[in-house]
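seq as requested:
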Amino acid sequence: MTEPATDSRGNDPRTADVRTPDTRTLVEQIAKSLVDAPDEVLVYQVDEDGETVIELEVAPDDMGKVIGKNGRTVRALRCLVNATGIRSQKRYALEILE
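struct tokens:
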């Protein structure tokens, strides 16, 4: 049986150099790739009550593309935002602004 790979402080060296992604930039890049008017994509980051809220604003015509069929696209975006939060030990929420 092999021992888990850790350094003297108990950290996994395989993930020591992995950069924490900038969640706001991640949401912005994904949203711009989904919409027809990428220049109208605006992403704001607001800190509220121990939680960071990522607010996404797109053109009215692109709202359906960001939400997706039955909300699948926005659900996937929220999943990615939550995953980056777990990785950086922060709590994030994604809101779509009208």
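The helical segments are 23-34, 63-67, 72-88.
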